[in-house]
Amino acid sequence: LNRAEIPHWNFDRAASGARREWNRLLARATIEGPREQQRIFTTALYHAFLHPSVISDRDGRWRGPDGRIRKAKHGLRYSTFSLWDSFRAAMPLYTLLVPERVDDFAGSLLDHAEASGRLPIWPIWGGETGTMIGEPALPVLADAWAKGFRGFDGRRALAAMVRTSTEDAALSQWSVLDRYGYYPFDRVEGEAVSRTLEAGIGDDAVARMATLLGEPTTGQRFARRAGSWRALIDPETRLTRGRDSQGNWRTPFDPLMPTSPLNNPGDYTEANAWQYSWTPALHDPEGLRDAMGGAAAFRAMLDRFFFDLPPTKGAAYLGQEAMIGQYAHGNEPSHHVAWLYAFTDKPETGHRLVRRIAHDFYKDRPDGIIGNEDAGQMSAWYIFATLGFYPAQPASGRYVLGIPLVERARIEVPGRKALIIERQGQGDHLSGFTRDGLPLSAPAIPHSQLISAGRLEFATSAGQ
């Protein structure tokens, strides 16, 4: 609100009111556990809720990416969407804990697209920075629609998604992708592999949205292109590797060498081949499992990634920090990887890794987060890990199951039934999972079942 429009404005009263509002918001998710763990969890909630930021004024006016003043038809308008980071877990977290904001988030993205001609990539204060790659607004919109949010126009959203996915832009050169079936490293200016893989995330989101809206032809079109990543699976290493416009593989090829456009230009974005090759699992984990040689080979690749490969030394500026093997929790391309063990015969390995990541890389002190908070993404990961599930396929409307890091948690959102989450036992094996007493099978639970549940119980055992 504008201070000038508030009669008898008083700083102390305003601060007290803000404190009450924050306490109500932070109370939407609570855990029972050691004091230190509660502080880390509540701080993570605070960090996650700092953004996106309201940019509309009290009368609904806001400044768009073209510099013009517009007026929202209804609701608030937001910016500071660190979408390359936040589409992975922060935006899905908002659908769970602040659902009353989600339609306005979607409306903000669509109004931005109306003003600029395409959906944003990394907007701040209404403008577009163009930072990072891919089209991360696409899975955000598809996820909201898949979870039943209907306070925005689905067909308007699909039209903006298709336009954003077909009209060439600086980094999304669709004509090149359509011609070759991938981004050749000699036809684009860097990050060719990462850009191909990120395009698949967006294409899958458009396909899902079109299918839900009853447009199967559009859905099939984008579902086919979402498989472009398959052209970059190197049969020798089973990793994603750059190819030129003639189909030749990048040579020499060092799958442990991280690249980034500002520091060490190459085929990957703040990562290396090992770290980026798991990206297709953000929309097609079963397809990636098969492309890597099947279930046994997939698990062996995961085991090698975490336990056999050495951490990268002295390259934090390339996203190489908070490492376990080649897993780099300090940067987002790795965030879903531990959860992929849910698609193997050894999900307990993933459960142990999630617990280790949460314990080693989150502390209750000023330097308690490794690397950049990235507008809430780092903290959103911790919140989901603590609760025992994670949006490993963000546009799917479902969560991959893990094991809660606490014995009891509570989610209480106005307008929804309170959800109690309980863990029984101290083991790493998920021996049973029930929703309101009814057994459910792993590895995932739909959002609709999660928010309508009154109680989730995770039974664990030590296993063999």
Question: Which secondary structure elements does this structure contain, and how are they paired or packed?
Answer:
Layout: H1 11-26, E1 29-32, H2 35-48, E2 53-54, E3 61-63, E4 69-71, E5 78-79, H3 83-86, H4 90-97, H5 99-116, E6 123-124, E7 127-128, H6 137-146, H7 154-164, H8 174-180, H9 192-212, H10 216-225, H11 273-276, H12 285-291, H13 295-308, E8 323-324, E9 327-328, H14 347-361, H15 377-387, E10 389-390, E11 398-401, E12 408-411, E13 419-424, E14 429-435, E15 438-439, E16 444-446, H16 447-452, E17 455-461
Parallel strand pairs: 13-17
Antiparallel strand pairs: 1-12, 2-5, 3-4, 6-7, 8-9, 10-11, 11-16, 12-13, 14-15, 14-17
Short description:
The protein is of the alpha+beta class and 464 residues long. The chain has helices at 11-26, 35-48, 83-86, 90-97, 99-116, 137-146, 154-164, 174-180, 192-212, 216-225, 273-276, 285-291, 295-308, 347-361, 377-387, 447-452; strands at 29-32, 53-54, 61-63, 69-71, 78-79, 123-124, 127-128, 323-324, 327-328, 389-390, 398-401, 408-411, 419-424, 429-435, 438-439, 444-446, 455-461. Strand 6 (123-124) and strand 7 form a beta hairpin.
